[in-house]
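Q: Please design a sequence for this.
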């Protein structure tokens, strides 16, 4: 059995300046939560309820629940199905899925007026984040 190496360790957590986070939350009004769940014990459900309570327009995106409501909001199968603009895409999926979601957000950036990609704690794809930043999105 081999000992784990530094290369096996998870990358260090990303730390963002409080002013950047506050600015994002001040500027966005419409948030698409990819990976939204109707299960009240899931973090995405809590986040959605919290954001709705703070006055944000929150759109759940989850192909397994498309056509159903979560917190009285219609759920869509994918970002392209969401009607109207999306200020921020909030990713509540595993890191292995983040790249595809980010790439789709980049494709829809102009059509949906997407400005921000928000990856929840523990969700990370540095290559996809770099692609999003190169496309002019805040990550």
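A: Design:
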């Amino acid at each position: 059995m081999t000992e784990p190496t530094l290369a096996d360790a998870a990358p260090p957590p990303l730390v963002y300046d409080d002013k950047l986070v506050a600015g994002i939350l001040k500027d966005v009004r419409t948030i698409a939560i990819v990976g939204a769940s109707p299960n009240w014990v899931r973090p995405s459900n809590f986040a959605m309820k919290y954001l709705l309570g703070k006055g944000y327009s929150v759109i759940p995106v989850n192909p397994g629940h498309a056509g159903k409501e979560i917190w009285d909001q219609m759920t869509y199968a994918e970002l392209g199905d969401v009607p109207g603009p999306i200020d921020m895409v909030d990713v509540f999926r595993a890191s292995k899925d983040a790249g595809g979601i980010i790439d789709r957000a980049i494709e829809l950036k102009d059509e949906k007026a997407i400005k921000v990609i928000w990856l929840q704690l523990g969700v990370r794809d540095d290559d996809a984040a770099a692609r999003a930043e190169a496309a002019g999105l805040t990550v």
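Q: Thanks. Anything notable?
A: The first strand starts at residue 30 and ends at 34. Helices lie at 18-27, 43-53, 95-112, 126-134.
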